[in-house]
Design goal:
- By secondary structure, the chain is of the alpha+beta class.
- It has a domain of about 110 residues: Aminopeptidase (3-Layer(aba) Sandwich), CATH 3.40.630.30.
- Helix content is about 25%, strand content about 30%.
- The chain has five helices and seven strands.
- The chain is globular and about 35 Å long.
- The chain starts with 13 loop residues before the first strand and ends with a strand.
């Protein structure tokens, strides 16, 4: 019996540094200001533009990465800000393309981020997520993150920013 892959499933997505041209695809993943802000925080411009995002991808810090499909198109993105003295990497702007959500790719993306952090000698991976972002919180918990601190976030419906940590 031949097992067929779902049209969106791929054996092992690759992760590479995000490129300027990836921004053109990624900006369309966020339907409105609220979605863009939930992804990138208050500093994301309104409207979210490919030029701004391309500049973010090209900046030396934080480092941005893309998880890609077989045609080298981005299907997920994330950024890492390294804090060498603290032996910590901070994960930012994590997203999966709407076309690929529900395929179990967030776990692969987060494992890739953890691998990159370990390569840079980080001993823990941290992130911030809005309290109302239940899907993201659940994905992070499945990947081994746990809440360690809460901060006020008036811009979020929950009023909270949840700080999460994963030992590496």
């Amino acid at each position: 019996m031949n097992a067929q892959l779902h049209p969106h499933q791929i054996a092992a997505p690759k992760i590479r540094r995000a490129r300027e041209d990836d921004a053109t695809d990624v900006v369309f993943w966020f339907a409105d200001r609220q979605a863009a802000m939930k992804w990138g925080g208050l500093q994301v411009p309104d409207p979210l533009g490919a030029d701004w995002l391309a500049a973010q991808f090209l900046a030396p810090s934080p480092e941005h990465y893309a998880m890609i499909d077989a045609q080298d198109r981005p299907i997920g993105v994330f950024g890492l800000r390294f804090h060498e003295r603290e032996r910590r990497a901070h994960l930012i702007r994590v997203a999966i393309s709407p076309l690929w959500r529900g395929e179990g790719l967030s776990g692969q993306l987060l494992r890739g981020a953890a691998h990159l952090a370990r390569e840079r000698r980080a001993q823990r991976l941290t992130l911030n997520v809005y309290g109302s972002n239940e899907d993201a919180k659940a994905a992070y918990e499945r990947a081994g993150f746990f809440p360690y601190e809460f901060a006020k976030a008036r811009e979020d419906a929950s009023g909270l920013m949840v700080r999460m940590l994963k030992p590496l």
